[in-house]
Amino acid sequence: MCILYDNKDFMSYIRKPVKHLAVIMDGNGRWAERRGLPRWRGHEAGVDAVRRLAEAACRFQIPVVTAFAFSSENWKRPEREVRTLFRLFERYFHSERNTLPGNGIRVSVFGRRDRIPNFVREAVAALEAETRGCSRLHLRIALDYGGRHEIVEAARSLARRVARGELQPGRIDEELFSASLSGDGIGDPDLVIRTAGERRLSNFLLWQAAYSELYFCSKLWPDFDESDLQTALADYESRTRRFGALPAAGVYRKAFQGAAEGAV
Ligand code: FPP
Fold this sequence. Notes:
Strand order of the largest sheet: 3-4-2-1-5-6
Low-confidence stretches: 250-264
Bound molecules: farnesyl diphosphate
């Protein structure tokens, strides 16, 4: 897809800025297979695409990007592929210490920390500490993350507070439940992009994406670039977000009244 506008024009056309973008990066394996390369080369190219995404998000003034790097189901992959992925993540977390702080990009990782290898945990902690003060873009990386597990954990922690007598069950509402999940205070994603033609959430941000706009494209993740992001943002711009309410005040109410008056 071609670039619709240059960045400056595009930003002046935007009326509905995306404050939180979430991305399901799919298609690394297919990208490699189509080139007769081993799968890990697709993941390596996928890492480059994450770097491009972060730069593009800065240019499009998106303050928060959440990327799904490794799901709790990805452990089912062959051990060799899992090992390679964690080595790539470690390399990424190390190398970005040289570039991200200078670009004002903060990185944080969420998901289970008890199962990922030590060398990744350490690299994550170092990069998180190094970029903590950056505020241009917050890049959140989901690692060993599963939406259902996150919801179960939140329910457990609230149940523990109830059992200790610290919380009345009646005080548990959507706001309190949201606050028990990762990303508390960040806000739900406005837009979720999934690449490589699949049209599902695959256990990603199940609670948080309840009212997100979904955008699916056929590009494989390693090929996803700034122009694809721009196309997705332009598509988002055309959506009407209603959160269960009616659109522009008056329009539907009038139509509804008319129908009701005509009803027998
Ligand atoms: C999907 O491709 C991608 C993954 C399993 C996640 C790995 C993501 C990266 C390596 C991107 C880099 C991320 C960071 C944060 C540095 P797939 O293997 O499922 O592709 P396929 O469906 O074509 O087999």
